[in-house]
# Entry
Amino acid sequence: MNYKIKISIPEPCHENWMEMSPTEKGRFCSSCQKNVIDFTKSSDREIVMAYNKNDKLCGRFNNFQINRNLIIPKEKKSIWVIAAASMIAFLGLGNQTAKAQESVKTEQKTIPTYTPPNNEKEEIEIEGKIFLGETNPNFEEVDILLYDKNQILHPNTDGKFCIKANKNDRILISKAGYINYYTTVFRSINLGAIELERDNCQTFVVGGAIAVKRSFWYRLFHKN
# Structure
């Protein structure tokens, strides 16, 4: 069954994150006696894998990570399936070779030229430079999220970046304390100067998260 997973935090925690005790994967909340995992640097794949192991996790998320469908990683084919497919292809090739050897007449046919369809997932190059309203900005904390690739990249120490994305991919540039920058790329382009604006609103959400799974049939008959 094909599912879409959405992370939701119905009751955010109001405890101070910085006052919690640091742990290996986040912090420990002494108020509710729970380990709070820091998912703010995690990809959708890592979040989904964590919730597949434990669906009662308490975590810290960026605003853009919750209340949207996460990208679920595709399962790789079993090596036995690949081996079986290869064997069938090999046997089929041998059968075709035997028939060709039995054929007496040889006919010359014109093979039509195959024109591959437009590949919407072809890689294109995107570059630009990010500006922050800080005296000594730390660009290592700036995330460049590629939705199609389910990958997070970072600009260099000067804020410049040159990345490869899929055509029609959505790109999200974010940093704690700043308003997110969204764009969709259709061709190789230099985005130029990208100045992130300060955000006075809370950018992190901490609390017991709920992973909602919605099947294809549910999404077919429900808009939300």
